Every structure is written in C-alpha cells, then in structure tokens.
Amino acid sequence: MENQDRKRLLIIDAALKRFAHYGLAKTTMTEIAKDIAFSKALLYYYFPDKLSLYVSVIEHLMHQISRDLVKSVEKTSSAAEGILMLVQKRQAFIQKYYKLIEYTKMMGPELPDELQDKFTRARAFELKIITGLLNKGNASGEFSVADLNFTTEIFVEAISGIHFNILNRSKIIYPDKEQFKLIFLKEKRFTEIFLAGLKQTNRS
Amino acid sequence: MENQDRKRLLIIDAALKRFAHYGLAKTTMTEIAKDIAFSKALLYYYFPDKLSLYVSVIEHLMHQISRDLVKSVEKTSSAAEGILMLVQKRQAFIQKYYKLIEYTKMMGPELPDELQDKFTRARAFELKIITGLLNKGNASGEFSVADLNFTTEIFVEAISGIHFNILNRSKIIYPDKEQFKLIFLKEKRFTEIFLAGLKQTNRS
C-alpha cells in the first residue's frame, strides 16, 4: 500500500472509532488528529472537512460489511439460512454503529447527495443478495417465489417497518439494549414466518 | 334523536365532506356553516374551533369504520379471509380519507393529546380484531401461532413498513392512484405470504 493510502486509512479508522463511540456532532477533527498523532494540517490535507471524512468512513464501513456479509452467506447451506444470516448481520451492524448512523437518520430526506448515494448503493446491494437467495431457494425447491424482485422489496420494506415502528412509538433516538433485543426478536420471528410462507406453493 | 344531537351530526357530516375533499387547512368554518345553512354563531356554539370539530369528525369516522369492519369480518368464513378483508378495508379507508388524515401525518409525534388518544384506540381496536382472528385460526387448525399478541404486532408493524417505505422513498405527501395501487398490491401479497407462513407448524 502506498504511504498516502496508509495515512488515509489511519485517519478513517480513527474517525470511525470516534464517530461510533460519540457520534458525529460530539467528535472534533482535533481529537481525531490527536488519536493518531497527526497534525491538524495533515488531517485537513486528506479531508477538507468533517462531513467529507464522515462520508469516507461510511463508504469504508459499507465495503467491510458487504465483504463480511457475502462470506457469511456463502457458508450457509440453504436459502432460508442465508436470509436469516443476513438479517442477523444487519442487526449486529445497526446495533454496533448506531451512533454513527444516527446522524443520517436525523437528516432524513435532506441527506447530502454524496451520502444518499452510499445508502442507495448499500440498499441495492442488500436487495441483490436477497433476490439471489430467493432465486437459489427456487432452484433447490426450497421456495416457490413467483416474482423475485417484488418479493424482495416486500420483505425489506416490511422488516424496516418493524424497526421504525418500535423506535417511533417510544420516541427514542438511541434505543437501549432491551429495545434492541425486542426489535431483533421481532425481526427474527418475522423472517421465520415470511420464509415459511414462501415455502407454500400454489399461492394466488 | 334529540334536536341538539341531530344538529351536531349535521355539522360533523358537512365537515367530513369538506375535510375529505380539501383537507383541514383549506376548509373554513364559514364554508361548513354555509353548506348546511347554519349561522356561524350556531356552528361555534357546537364546536369552539376547527380543531375540536376535526377531532369529532375523526371520532365519528372511526366509529363508522369499526362497525363496518366488524360486520365485514364476521361474514368471512376463515381466519385468513378475515385478515385479508381487514387489510382491504384498511386500504380503502386510507385511500378514501387520505386528505383528511394527511394533517395528522404531518403533525407526527406533536399530535394534540385528544387526537393521539383516538388513534391509539383505533390501533388497539385493530390489533384486537387481528389477535381474535389468529386465535380463531388456531382453534380451527388453520394456523399454528404460538404468541398471539406478539405475532399481531409483527404483522401490523411490517405492513405499515410497506406503506411508509413507498411514500417516503418518493417523498410524496399525497400519493396518486398508481402509487396506491402498488402499495395495495404489495400489502395484499405480503399478507398472503405471512398467512401462509402461519400455517406451517413446528416453527422454531
């Protein structure tokens, strides 16, 4: 790796730790520079402002998650297991990095284009994996899904409904451990019921 | 019916028509009074302001819907049919009264307590009907649902995810016919898959 790339990665890694622990608003560029003994000037040479660093952190994280997800799903022996694995990985990611993604949740539809783009890609990637797994399930006779893309969308939208309903109803920004537990329990049970439903043939 | 009650109902009925057609903001008390040839003073005697009239309209509507729903569900021959009927009635209600409920959607968590209370009751009523239908399905051997309340919550939250995902993604306040059609198609297919999943026994 080039020296420049290594320095860039060092910064991203330090910023990731700070953002994940304290959130975007409560982290300063000075703190990040200190953590890795960089001058502030050097930090600003790589990232002109905190938002551009944040975007790079999100991008970096999503690459990591995607690689990890693909590997984990490949190890599962059935399509249903693969989808349950994806749901579980997604939950672990959200719980671990809640403070980091909190900012984007607060921004809502006014998200900067650069960030919106990263999330759109992440969503498309997730949909592609699920569609692939449903397809695999069809081929092996595990499922009987007529419209793969349509069914994938329904699944992803429904599961996000469970997530946000719990959070909105209790007007929480940062859910505690018990709330995460309930969300995960519901999402897991939901996935089981939905996948059982896909096993049925002759649906109208 | 007492004369007072009849006058009150006349006002509510006229307001309902205006709100459903033009929304809350674009309707004036003067217009409502004109529609039924009442003096403004008389209108204000029954309802001191537009919000109190709006709350009564919502309450009136919810009573109507509840009665209609119970009747329709009673006519269905299986639990699954009953739940599909409920989903369909809910969709028809949302589409017909979208302009009327739009205001409450805009308000979000800052909804006045009186209104919040009506919606909490409506939600509780809906959950009760679904739990009842799942219970009926268990008794007849149609379903095999371990935790009735938990499963009801999952179902309702998941279906609202489908509804809001479509609307939020396209940043729409008032969806057009095509968008409603897509939402309804997805919700119907979702319900079919979910109910098929509940037919499976021996889930973990």
TrEMBL record, chains A, B:
InterPro entries: Homeodomain-like_sf (IPR009057), HTH-type_TetR-like_transc_reg (IPR050109), HTH_TetR (IPR001647). Residues 5-65 form the HTH tetR-type domain. It comes from the Bacteria. Keywords: DNA-binding. GO terms for molecular function: DNA binding. Pfam families: TetR_N. Residues 28-47 bind DNA. This is Transcriptional regulator.
